Amino acid sequence: MSKDLDVLLKEERVFKPSKEFLEESNIAKWMKKHEIEDYESLLERTRKDPEWFWDEMAHDLEWFEDYDKILDWKPPHARWFLDGKFNIVYNALDRHIKNGRKNKLAYIWEGENGEVRKFTYFELYREVNRLSNALKKMGIEKGDRVSIYLPMIPELPIAMLACARIGAVHSVVFSGFSAKAFQDRSYDAQSKVAITVDGFHRRGKETKLKENLDTVLESIPSIEKVLVVKNTGSDLDLQEGRDFYWDDVLKDESPECTCEEMDSEDPLFILYTSGTTGKPKGVLHTHGGYAVGSSTTLKFVFDIKEEDIWWCAADIGWITGHSYIVYAPLLLGTTSMMFEVTPDYPDPGIFWKIIEKYGISIFYTAPTTIRMFMKFGELWPQKYDLSTLRILGSVGEPINPEAWMWYYQFIGNQECPVMDTWWQTETGMHIITPLPISNLKPGSAGKPFPTIEAEIKDDAGNVLLEEGGHLTIKTPWPAMFRTLYKEPERFVDAYWSKYPGIYLSGDVAHVDKEGYYWIQGREDDVLNVAGHRIGTAEVESALVSHNAVVESAVVGKPDPLKGEEISAFVILKQSFTADDELKNKLRSHVRSEIGPIASPSYINFVDDLPKTRSGKIMRRVIKAKVKGEDVGDTSTLANPESVDGLDKAI
Ligand code: WT7
Question: Within this chain, do residues 434 and 294 fall inside the same structural domain, yes or no?
Fold first, then answer.
């Protein structure tokens, strides 16, 4: 970035925490115990002594052998809870079996066809043990990799836990990815076993996952055995000696299996994340630090209590699901909702129906989903009783103030704080996030979690206040990724070399006078208009704040005079007509919201925007179209047909 980023968006609304949260939340009680007066003192105290904080959190979990040292920090390498003997699965399952949660529900699962399956902690424990025993018989040993290619069915968390229990490293590949994506990731990880499914339904249509997998299995010679969950009951050709049905293999296995004693720093999983360029990065997380970081953030940010029913509506194929559907909720002994369904099938009321049916109390989703719900209107949530909700959450992209307000008003009935949590696959846990005791500003992710120090920097490394720049993290945190699998140099180059010893997130953001962080987008997407550097999120947010607009994406179109001109792609609400008059209105709306410099030169109305499977807009694809270039690799696109729509609009 040649020059700092302009800050255009001004959002003045502030929402204060309720008395109840100030007194009764987990974080409030913890503060009382330590005689910490308020939020600011909490941040100050924990930043002064982060090890004191994490040491206490780590001792909420059970160690086979206590650690000798809390942290060893030789940037960029951190080791947490050194020489501690630990297993995340022992803490997620066995501990509860002994301590009174044996018959508490761990998961309530509902499938697309309305089928319901429920697992108590004891039932989950027994299934996991059976699979652990089976994996051992298949030759899986501590440190071996297992690739998991499963949709959102209970066998997915069971498979992850069964691996971790015996010290194997799981690599989950999102079930919406192609077999080729599975091949690349499993080849890289040299996995010995693959766990998959005959098929699964999405919007009523079956995807035959095992059949797809068969097209690539020969190209992954490391895979010796394939375990297949019978889900849809489709006919399959199983290859003798290699492929086995899950039920056949598990039925004779013992429901008891010793839990492997791992070192705190032993690898737990690899999760491949595809950046904007290059081959996917194998982000590696460990047993000890990841367990402590993910469970602590869930406990304090979402205030999980014994009687809560928690619903994180992500897919387990992403880090959000790894951390906040599988590990952290189980570590806390929570009851979680697990749902197979897409938010608008069979109709856009399905999520609210689920909340009413199970009495969900805490709900966590992505801005792209919230904006989709806005498009369908508030009549849908209004049909259902959402009064059990007490906290809402958002993750994955900047949530524009408009969507924040809609969520707060129509889903939370102005009573539920919205936790806009900023974090990444690499961070493993929430990094910048409000707490139930902090003030909220719609569109801001709040401040760094206790103990963490972040900074906004310009290219030269100067710290910026009230100016946009690179979002960096200065201090280590327990759930940080330890390396990129088999690419230690890339780990250093990509994240730790621009500012030695300081973590570069790849996002641009600014911090306001009161220390609140406002994410402005990915640094690769920054617009450069007549010498002004503008984050995409601000222009998009200004567009969405117009009553006619549901969603938008902006990119730069090269211009010989200005450097770049802003080209906006806009999805309208159904009742509005796409015409030139509306284009002009939108331009003047942006002008008055954030200034003339950010007013888009081009406005293109579209029905759909190209998105990744996790709901992030792929501006790279739009940019290529605007420049008339080849769009490149689109294998991670959820909706390839949207690309034709772009062509028509330009
Ligand atoms: C990127 C990380 C971490 C869970 C899901 C995505 C964007 C994430 C927010 C937020 C603004 C956000 C960032 C980040 N992001 N949360 N609350 N506000 N942007 O994990 O796929 O690793 O993506 O998602 O750009 O760098 P991921």
Answer: yes
> Could you give the number of structural domains in the chain?
3
Residues near ligand 1 with C-beta < 6 Å?
273, 318-320, 395-398, 420-425, 445, 505-507, 519, 522, 614
Q: Give the residue whose CA is nearest to atom 2 of ligand 1.
A: 424
Assign 275 a pLDDT band (cuts: 50, 70, 90).
low
DSSP state string for 13-74: --BPPPHHHHHHSHHHHHHHHTT--SHHHHHHHHHH-HHHHHHHHHTTS--SB--SEEEEEE
> Which residue's CA lies nearest to atom 1 of ligand 1?
424
State mean pLDDT over 638-642: 88
If one compares 7 and 91, the residue with the highest pLDDT of the two is 91
Residue 14 lies in a domain: no
Q: Which domain holds residue 502?
A: 19-87+268-521
Q: What is the CATH number of the domain that holds 353?
A: 3.40.50.12780
Nearest CA to ligand 1 atom 20: 424
444-471 pLDDT, tens digit each: 999 999 999 999 999 999 999 999 999 9
Residues 6+ apart with CB under 8 A from 106: 119, 120, 121, 123, 124, 330, 334, 335, 336
How does pLDDT run across 412-440, given as a tens digit for each residue?
A: 999 999 999 999 999 999 999 999 999 99
**Token digits of residue 70:** 């809390």
Q: Identify which of 9, 324, 397, 449 to mutate to test ligand 1's pocket (most ligand atoms within 8 A of the CB).
A: 397
Q: How far is the CA of 505 from the centre of ligand 1 (A)?
A: 10
- Tell the residue nearest (CA) to atom 24 of ligand 1: 396
CATH number at residue 536: 3.30.300.30
For the CA of 421, the closest atom of ligand 1 is 17
- 99 shares its domain with 70: no
What's the 398 CA to ligand 1 centre distance in angstroms?
8
Distance from Cα 555 to the centre of ligand 1, integer Å = 19
Do 354 and 500 lie in one domain? The reply is: yes
- Residue closest by Cα to atom 13 of ligand 1: 397
The predicted structure's pLDDT at residue 324: 98
8-state DSSP, 415: T
Q: Whose CA is closest to atom 12 on ligand 1?
A: 397
**Joined tokens for residue 149:** 């290619």
Whether the predicted pLDDT of 632 surpasses 90:
no
Q: Tokens 């060893």 belong to which residue?
A: 72
In a domain, 202, yes or no: yes
pLDDT score at 2 = 52
Nearest to 345 by CA among 337, 334, 336, 353: 353
Cα-to-centroid distance, 396 and ligand 1 (Å): 4
pLDDT at 298 > cutoff 70:
yes
Q: Does the pLDDT value for residue 501 go beyond 80?
A: yes
Residue 9's nearest CA partner among 521, 395, 518 is 518
For 494, residues 6+ apart whose C-beta sits below 8 A from its C-beta are 281, 484, 504
Handedness of CA 641, 645, 648, 650 (dihedral sign): negative
pLDDT of residue 111: 94
Write down which residue in 500, 521, 542 finishes a domain: 521
**C-alpha of residue 423 to centroid of ligand 1, in Å:** 5
| 106-146 per-position pLDDT tens digit | 999 999 999 999 999 999 999 999 999 999 999 999 999 99
